[in-house]
Amino acid sequence: MERPELSLIIPIFNEALVIDELRRRLAEVMSKLESQVRSWEVVFIDDGSKDASLQMLREMASAEPRFKVVSFARNFGHQLAITAGLDRAEGDAVVIMDADLQDPPEVVLEMITRWRDGFDVVYCVRRSRAGETLFKRATASVFYRFLRWMLGGVTIPVDAGDFRLVSRPVVLTLRALRERHRFVRGMVSWVGFKQSPLLYDREARFAGETKYPFTKMLRFAVDAITSFSILPLRLASWLGVGTAMVAIVYSMYVVYVKLYLGATVQGWATLMIAVALGTSAQLFMTGILGEYVGRIYEEVKRRPLYVTAELINFVGAEAGPSSRYLDDRREKAREPS
Ligand code: UDP
Ligand code: MG
Questions:
Q1: More exposed terminus of the chain, fewer Cβ within 10 Å: N or C?
Q2: Ligand 1 atom closest to Cα of 47?
Q3: Is 11 in the pocket of ligand 1 (CB under 6 A)?
Q4: Whole-model pTM?
Q5: Which of 53, 75, 96, 98 to mutate to test the pocket of ligand 1 (most atoms within 8 A of CB)?
Q6: Ligand 1: does its nearest atom lie under 6 Å from the Cβ of 144?
Q7: Terminal Cα-to-Cα distance of the chain (whole angstroms)
Q8: Mean pLDDT, consecutive 10-residue segments, the chain of 337 residues?
Q9: Which of 212, 228, 69, 85 has the alpha carbon at shortest distance from 144?
Q10: Ligand with smallest separation from the Cα of 98
Q11: 232 CB under 6 A from ligand 1?
């Protein structure tokens, strides 16, 4: 079967309240797209939804074979849902977007134009963000600037999410990156190719609540840092050098006081502060080490990144675990010997 020219990837986690409207908006955009692209597909990834989402997607897919569904065996998280989409999407251009209509599907038309102009990545930068709390906007703003400072080499755009278009060469490259803790937007920057920003107004969520509570956001931030930088590990050396210098100066003072002034036992406060600061710095560094060691542990287990329970409207594909390793083996098994 011929590959579609455009694929849309839409992760879905408990989005029953928005699916009908999403379908309506998609139909509108797709009819406009018909003059711009030869053929299209939409790959929905049901990330272990517990509401009616999967049932609704099944109904959509039975009425429209170009709507395809990858259904996870449980919730694996937004970034792995996107990964499954990238693994399955066959378009020459692939667009990643949220289901909640915060990323207006109409922007896809503009992305296609940029792609036709020769760009491999068109990433959408938020000119405005409606309906997001001040807290979310503030933390995001600080975090991305901090991340940018930390990474140095790989420039990760500020105020951009995963809403973007990537060309097939980029998709094929991303498929080769099988790390477990993923920060997809960073990985896309890392890949390189010709990238172009596109300004858009981020709308408010159409219905329902954010699926990114603070704890998930925090985990996402730690994944972003640890998957692109080992600067936190170096922090130990800097802290060590810093405290050693303070210690040397202070020791000289202590010796001086002892020899020339014959001081008595004093300095309980200094001692307590030194012990408290010292132990907390050490625990903090052990924690950072733990973050990295834990990630190494999870990588060496080489488990598949996600497990699919069901695939709908994919021709000749089977559900099951997915990892580069398993895919390669399956590929080998299929080759005629
Ligand atoms: N999502 C997902 N798995 C999760 C959390 C979220 O697939 O564990 C999807 C969700 O359905 C939506 C997108 O990821 O399509 C972005 O989530 P959300 O809109 O809740 O995040 P926010 O816009 O609030 O950052
Ligand atoms: Mg959202």
A1: C
A2: 7
A3: yes
A4: 0.84
A5: 98
A6: no
A7: 24
A8: 91 96 93 90 96 95 95 95 95 96 92 95 88 84 84 76 95 92 90 91 86 87 88 86 87 85 75 84 88 91 91 84 58 60
A9: 228
A10: 1
A11: no
- CB atoms closer than 10 angstroms to residue 237: 10
- Are 323 and 334 spatial neighbours (Cβ–Cβ below 8 Å)? no
DSSP-derived letter for residue 92 is S
Task: Map residue 145 onto helix, strand or coil.
Answer: helix
Tell whether ligand 1 has an atom less than 6 A from the beta carbon of residue 47: yes
Can you tell me whether residue 328 is helix, strand or coil?
helix
Residue closest via CA to ligand 1's atom 24 equals 210
CA distance 20 to 165: 24
Inter-residue contact 305 to 180 (CB < 8 Å): yes
Q: Which residues contact 127 (CB under 8 A, 6 or more apart)?
A: 199, 200, 201, 202
81 lines ligand 1 (CB under 6 A): yes
